[in-house]
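Long-time lurker, first post. I've been practising inverse folding by hand and with some scripts of my own, and I keep getting stuck on stretches where the structure tokens seem ambiguous. Below is the full token string for one chain I'm working on. Before anyone asks, I'm not after the true native sequence, just a reasonable design that respects the backbone. If someone could post their per-position residues I'd love to compare against what I wrote down in my notebook.
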């Protein structure tokens, strides 16, 4: 197992998320109880329980390219016939879907590229909710620039332009909450503390990076974070 996955295995979630935000996103689209849902870039399925609660009648296809996350997810929801995990690329998931949920994964593909690619997989009237890294203030501190290492992170206006470029309407936005970030970072801190004493140099480097990420977010969380966006084809 690589050092990265020594840190990132066995955690309940792999990015920020909170049930209130999933409930909010579902409310924005008024999704029906019998919806077909895609959790794109699901990781180990941290959002699946809240998605099930928000849309109890829905079936969920959870897709992630990292097969061990999907193995964990399938074990976790083995008793739930409405949840299926699939190790695959998020852009190859076969629809139609009434609702695509994509938390912390769209940046791997690009907002415009992902929304354009998912258009054919959306059922008529279908909608997408995604979270994406966002600058909340202009001229972020150097630590934030360093964290993104050249990734073209933009502000809300920039994300709106990326949504429009894909031919979608932006229905609603809200910043991902501090509670959602802490739901990701606090278990990770516990894991870092447990792994540190026996870590080799490669693992120490991964643990250092994770500590930098969480310290940067805690110090500058009013400057940057994730923006949760709900969109629908125009
Ligand atoms: C930051 S994690 C978020 C995981 C989960 N949504 C959560 O909030 O806990 C991003 C996930 O996207 C997955 N991923 C990235 N690019 C992908 C792709 N092209 N196809 C499928 N999964 C991808 C990664 O393996 C990772 O599990």
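-- Answer (accepted) --
I ran through it position by position. Result:
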């Amino acid at each position: 197992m690589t050092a990265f996955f020594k840190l990132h295995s066995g955690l309940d979630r792999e990015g920020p998320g909170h049930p209130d935000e999933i409930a909010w996103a579902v409310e924005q689209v008024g999704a029906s109880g019998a919806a077909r849902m895609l959790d794109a870039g699901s990781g180990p399925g941290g959002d699946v329980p809240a998605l099930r609660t928000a849309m109890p009648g829905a079936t969920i296809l959870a897709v992630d390219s990292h097969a061990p996350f999907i193995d964990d997810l399938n074990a976790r929801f083995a008793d739930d016939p409405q949840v299926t995990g699939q190790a695959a690329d998020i852009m190859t998931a076969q629809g139609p879907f009434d609702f695509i949920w994509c938390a912390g994964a769209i940046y791997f593909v690009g907002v415009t590229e992902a929304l354009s690619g998912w258009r054919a997989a959306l059922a008529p009237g279908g909608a997408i909710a995604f979270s994406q890294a966002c600058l909340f203030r202009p001229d972020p501190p150097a630590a934030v620039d360093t964290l993104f290492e050249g990734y073209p992170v933009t502000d809300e206006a920039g994300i709106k332009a990326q949504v429009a470029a894909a031919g979608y309407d932006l229905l609603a936005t809200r910043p991902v909450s501090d509670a959602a970030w802490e739901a990701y970072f606090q278990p990770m801190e516990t894991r870092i503390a447990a792994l540190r004493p026996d870590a080799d140099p490669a693992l120490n480097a991964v643990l250092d990076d994770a500590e930098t990420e969480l310290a940067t977010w805690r110090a500058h969380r009013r400057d940057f974070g994730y923006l949760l966006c709900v969109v629908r084809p125009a």
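A couple of notes from the structure itself: The first strand starts at residue 36 and ends at 40. Residues 82 and 140 are 43 Å apart (CA to CA). Happy to go over any region you disagree with.
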